[in-house]
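Continuing the series of single-chain predictions for the mutant panel. This is the parent chain; the variants come on the following pages.
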Amino acid sequence: MEELLLSLCAAEGVTGHETAAAAAAARLLARHCEDVRIDALGSVVGKRHGSGPRLLLDAHLDQIGMAVTAVEEGGFLRVTPCGGMDLRTLAGQEVMIHGKEALYGVIPATPPHLSKSEDKATEWKDILIDTGLPREALAELVPLGTRITLRTPPARLLGERLTAPALDDRAGMAAILRCLELLDREDTCPLTVLFSTQEETFGQSGAKTAGFASGAESAIVVDVSFAMAPSLDEQRAPGILGGGAMIGVSPALDEQMGETLRRLAREKDIPHTIEVMGGRTGTNADTLQGVAVGIPCALLSIPLRNMHTAAEIVDMRDIEAVAQLMAAYILRNEK
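Parent structure:
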């Protein structure tokens, strides 16, 4: 599981530029699906044959990042965010610039000895990336619009915890791939697996279009959600690292599917918690439920600490719990 997850996280896939991540995902998905393709918007779609109503399994493929807006003297780049990048976390960060060649860069930080309150970046116009290259050479290698990702090597922490960039939502993709592995020798309902693009732009167009094309009669969306940290309370961060799958409850989600998942988790002793949302879920479930004639959705989330930073943290046991619960739901549908 760790090797699978790290291989997914290593592939660059900033929103709207998911080609490398899609290729990596398609190779992994081909181990478990008879038909794998990349659709017009870059989403990866795989299908497994079976009998009964078609079920869609979705996790989004894209990650947050930045895009280049200007090349300036001294080897500096100006950027704009792609997705929910937090300005507060960027000072002193290392980045990879995915231009005609992969380039290393750093986001400058004023030394604390010299800094004043007004030196802190409060708007994206204040952010620069230093490459050290002459402007002419940099402009040739980095066309405007080039995507940039945070550069942090993955690392194993204590116990079963792992830190890496892009765990949102490569952890969800890993859970689905693990679920398919559990089902490889089983007869199931027809399955469509969707690793969807453009979730982080809040348009969720990859899920909308591929969901429409899938013909699915129900869907399980797998994403990450907020895990408890010392600075947070249970209302803002209901997840617990190592606490298992988070089963969503929301007006946007199908009540019967959610109840079945909760019952199966209890019966099979799969670790889980309940995540209650009073409205939208902030995931692809919000979009999928409204495509075609309507797709009833359930939501399973993986607790994640430090979301949308270079130091996201998951517990591998939670990914396994989500995979086991999805597999139990699919096999239960056949009885």
